[in-house]
């Protein structure tokens, strides 16, 4: 097989092969292991040297499907709790297939009025969903990290302008270090964004009042006061990845207003707290932030590459990312939007389509119901742990995160970290249920993130049953 034009009549047939494989794969998610390590050897069939003569469309797709459906980690199933990863709702999955089918160049309005308009629509819907003022600018990004890059690039532009510098034109040379302050709840993706932006990963200072990382507000205010009016950036965290804890965003917004600071909020999954009256207090004040980020592949349950960033002053997005100066990239006329001037990407997938499909399909009420079901499941798991004599809850259950460890009777404290580390490894080897281990408050813990639209209470019941079964085979 040579030039793909010879295979053009097989395009629809190849998609039909994927469609035929989809039913059995999706139907198996509730029952099959999250990961079957015995299938890993199949991955070698996708390796080897680049073929001189290709196999043709149908043969290549069939091989990928055969290996992929057997060897994939079923992160879209109901029992993947290892990372904060949602599944993909039926509407979002179909919308993603539409995205590939239409293959729109979504950066410029002239290349796809459809993609540009749909992105504008979904950004407006997301702001409405979360209670963010409609006046905010926004852009869809490939990830939460790139959403942080977007928000913090705008913060950097704002900060440099207060030093009389156009950082997009001149760069950071000659400027002081940009002060960035947060609590101990800050996520590594924020530091990575600062690293990418040239501000320095380790310049961020944290102010924590205890070993949980909760914000020491008086210490933060003292640090801001010491700047004597010089601009700074605050990072508020809405939904920490171990405990689900959050910073007091309203209080941080007050500090930002008093001390000439920009407030950036990391709402990767915690922004969805705004959807339920049970958790909305954690999100109070987010509407006062200067930039806000979230990640759609978490609680929105859309495919990967679905971050989003909202900016109070939309003009800062253009100053941070626009002004291409290329004659073949004309600015969109008449108030139309070129999204490649509002974020870090130039060539952009039309990632708005799956978001549009899922929001249109389920609406505000559907997402509120899903979030509250996950809150119920998390509380159910917390109660089971509290009532047990072999597990220990290490943080109050907040939002959809459950942080705990195995603590069987008679095992001394100095052996619990090793026991839980080995238990976590054994759980992943078993493959029926996935939950990750981490270090929290100096202890090795199990961390369970409940954001997948398929997850219900029996899935976490199974988690504890499998943990006990696996633990029985471990030496204490």
Q: What is the assigned CATH homologous superfamily of the largest domain?
A: Type I PLP-dependent aspartate aminotransferase-like (Major domain)
Q: Whole-number average pLDDT?
A: 95
Number of helices: 14
- CATH architecture level-2 label of the largest domain: 3-Layer(aba) Sandwich
Poorly predicted tracts of residues: none
Cα shape = globular
The number of domains: 3
The spatial strand order of the largest sheet comes to 1-7-6-5-4-2-3
**What does the radius of gyration come to?**
24 Å
Helix-strand topology string: HHHHEHHEHEHEHEEHEHHEEHEEH
Distance between the termini: 58 Å
Strands, total number: 11
Q: Briefly note the structural class of the backbone.
A: alpha/beta
Could you estimate the helical fraction of the residues in percent? 40-55%
Assigned CATH class of the largest domain: Alpha Beta
- The CATH topology assignment of the largest domain is Aspartate Aminotransferase, domain 2
Largest sheet: 7 strands, mixed
How large is the share of residues in beta strands? Answer: 5-15%
In short:
It contains 14 helices and eleven strands.
Structural description of this entry:
The protein is globular, with a radius of gyration of 24 Å. Helix 4 (113-130) runs parallel beside helix 12 (352-387) and helix 5 (144-161) packs across helix 11. The protein has 476 residues and is an alpha/beta fold. The chain is built from 14 helices and eleven strands.
């Amino acid at each position: 097989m040579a030039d793909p034009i010879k295979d053009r009549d097989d395009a629809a047939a190849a998609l039909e092969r994927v469609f035929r494989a989809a039913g059995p794969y999706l139907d198996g998610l509730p029952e099959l292991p999250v990961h079957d390590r015995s299938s890993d050897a199949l991955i070698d069939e996708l390796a080897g040297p680049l073929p001189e003569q290709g196999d043709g469309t149908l043969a290549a797709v069939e091989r990928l499907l055969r290996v992929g459906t057997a060897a994939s980690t079923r992160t879209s199933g109901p029992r993947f709790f290892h990372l904060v990863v949602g599944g993909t709702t039926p509407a979002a999955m179909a919308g993603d297939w539409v995205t590939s089918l239409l293959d729109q160049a979504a950066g410029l309005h002239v290349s796809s009025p459809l993609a540009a308009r749909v992105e504008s629509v979904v950004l407006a819907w997301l702001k409405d969903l979360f209670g963010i003022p409609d006046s905010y600018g926004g852009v869809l990004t490939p990830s939460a990290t790139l959403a942080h890059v977007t928000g913090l690039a705008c913060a950097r532009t704002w900060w440099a302008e207060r030093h009389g510098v156009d950082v997009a034109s001149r760069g950071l040379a000659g400027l002081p270090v940009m002060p960035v302050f947060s609590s101990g709840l800050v996520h590594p993706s924020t530091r990575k964004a600062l690293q990418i932006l040239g501000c320095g990963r380790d310049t961020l200072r944290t102010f924590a009042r205890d070993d949980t990382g909760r914000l020491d507000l008086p210490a933060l205010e003292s640090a801001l006061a010491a700047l004597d009016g010089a601009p700074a950036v605050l990072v508020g965290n809405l939904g920490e990845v171990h405990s689900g804890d959050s910073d007091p965003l309203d209080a941080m917004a007050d500090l930002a207003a008093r001390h000439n600071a920009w407030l950036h909020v990391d709402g990767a999954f915690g922004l969805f707290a705004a959807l339920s009256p049970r958790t909305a207090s954690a999100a109070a004040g987010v509407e006062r932030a200067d930039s806000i980020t979230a990640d759609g592949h978490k609680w929105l349950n859309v495919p990967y590459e679905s971050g989003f960033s909202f900016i109070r002053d939309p003009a800062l997005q253009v100053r941070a990312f626009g002004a291409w100066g290329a004659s073949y990239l004309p600015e969109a006329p008449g108030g139309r939007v070129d999204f490649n001037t509002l974020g870090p990407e130039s060539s952009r997938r039309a990632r708005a389509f799956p978001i549009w499909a899922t929001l249109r399909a389920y609406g505000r009420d559907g997402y509120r119901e899903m979030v509250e079901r996950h809150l119920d499941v998390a509380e159910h798991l917390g109660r089971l742990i509290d009532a047990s004599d072999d597990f220990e809850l290490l943080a109050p259950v907040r939002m959809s995160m459950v942080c705990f460890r195995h603590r069987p009777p008679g095992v001394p404290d100095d052996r619990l970290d090793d026991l839980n580390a080995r238990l976590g490894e054994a759980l992943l080897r078993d493959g029926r249920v996935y939950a990750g281990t981490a270090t929290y408050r100096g202890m090795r813990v199990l961390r369970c993130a409940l954001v997948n639209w398929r997850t219900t209470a029996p899935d976490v019941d199974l988690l504890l049953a499998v943990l006990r079964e696996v633990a029985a085979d471990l030496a204490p």
